[in-house]
């Protein structure tokens, strides 16, 4: 997952999955998640934050959380490329715990082990303030594609917008 | 005929407990006082012998004391810590007899009936106690008598041992203040000419009761043994530690876990009986080569369920280096908290328990304080409208209802070039050239003047939601009182 609107993708996914989500980041990262901002997506009480010292710790915590089955979504912010072994371990853990793992990565640093890779960017249109462009840039088991979506705060879900409608 | 054993009571008085305790940790030569704020003034709370020789006394204002004695050294008193230390001394005194209680805030009372001969007689017992305490740096006065009152009188106003039998003969010569009377009563008795205990005992009882109420004669009877008085020993705090010693050393993880399971069952039984749960557990593994290894487990919530705690030990135990084998296991709950029985709920309990176990497991890796959750805070300043606190020590709270749209991400304000009250048409932010497509605002937020905040020195802020042509949706603010534009957050 990369791009400028990756956060809203993650929180939209959390809203869709329901239940507890866990957000793991390295402790040096300065940007703060604002609970007032995410209240549109999920109840901030359902979000747990972990601050890990290094990417190694981030991955270890993510694996533990994915395997436990106590959370439905694990989001980790990564700063370095993810190796094949780590990626595969996370996938197995996610399968065991029946949870979704999402890695927020800098542009062009995806792991080869990833099932799918998305790029998510906000799009400016004169009428709508929530229009996003989701681009599937890697898919192991299907084709790539581009979708335009819009966040509907009332029903707490993303609504698809036809390309012509943008 | 044998009519039971005569009761014998020791009273210990530490006249300078507070200053002795303070000087024990950091000794000081010369006059020394502990000060405490009493009655709106800094007063002398406790002083050492040297200071007393200089003419100071407890209760005098500290400024006076310094005027009398210019080279006076002082520290601040800590009565709570003194009381805690008195409990330590009480525990120490249980080596002489099991029945030890506290006497006021600076004394102990011991019922040594039947244990005197173990220390070579009463004189020897007192000498040993005083000797040990004096070597430890405490000034102590001890009295031994048939009753608690007599022992107290001897400790405070006399010294030594009162022979068994007639207490009046032992304490008769002491002043009436030795009967634990109030100061007002003591003065009144002295005015009546009753200066000594023997005077009081010889006086007619009925007029005394009419004059003073029953209190004075009750104290006299208690001291002379005509009226019983009990000593209430304090209960030992429950100790949450169990251990197991093995006939043969073990080294396999499974074996250690099996041993831990046995210990946990015993420990949790103890915890359940007291309605408490362990918050921090410490497993000590003693190896054959006299080395010992520790596994510490910090739990996300107090637990006393062995089935849930045991799997959480797995990670710590697997990291242990068993060396030539482990021969002794010791498990202690180093911190416990109250756990009250609650109604079980089969719908939601499972998920919550799973989450708490997950927090514990992650906590063993990155520290329990690094797992946090948001709590709402009462402030309209964006960065202060929430707090982050450790998820293990707080419950999730709802009540998030922002009145206006707020950004997903907040960061420290980043200055951009711009002037005037309206958002700049073109600006550079994080090395990106951005063009304003649409700006919604302003929303004015005033600083909270009652709180000092470095970041809000520039005065009130006008916030704008700016959607750029390039797509980024930013939260900008303008400070009209110190003109400037900043980016503080990002939507989407």
UniProtKB/TrEMBL annotation, chain A:
Organism: Tritonibacter scottomollicae (Epibacterium scottomollicae)
Protein's name according to its UniProt entry: Protein ImuA
Superkingdom of origin organism: Bacteria
InterPro entries: P-loop_NTPase
Automatic annotation (TrEMBL), chain B:
Enzyme superclass (EC): transferase
Annotated GO biological process: DNA repair
Keyword Lipid biosynthesis on entry: no
Pfam families: IMS (PF00817), IMS_C (PF11799)
Sample GO molecular function, one term: damaged DNA binding
Residue ranges occupied by any UmuC domain in the UniProt entry: 30-153
Domain of life according to the entry: Bacteria
Catalyses which reaction(s): DNA(n) + a 2'-deoxyribonucleoside 5'-triphosphate = DNA(n+1) + diphosphate
Alphabetical UniProt keywords: DNA damage
EC number per UniProt: 2.7.7.7
Transmembrane parts of this sequence: none
Presence of keyword DNA damage: yes
Functional summary from the UniProt entry: Poorly processive, error-prone DNA polymerase involved in untargeted mutagenesis. Copies undamaged DNA at stalled replication forks, which arise in vivo from mismatched or misaligned primer ends. These misaligned primers can be extended by PolIV. Exhibits no 3'-5' exonuclease (proofreading) activity. May be involved in translesional synthesis, in conjunction with the beta clamp from PolIII.
PANTHER family on file: BLR3025 PROTEIN (PTHR35369:SF2), BLR3025 PROTEIN-RELATED (PTHR35369)
Subunit structure: Monomer.
Family: Belongs to the DNA polymerase type-Y family.
Listed name of the protein: DNA-directed DNA polymerase
Source species of the chain: Tritonibacter scottomollicae
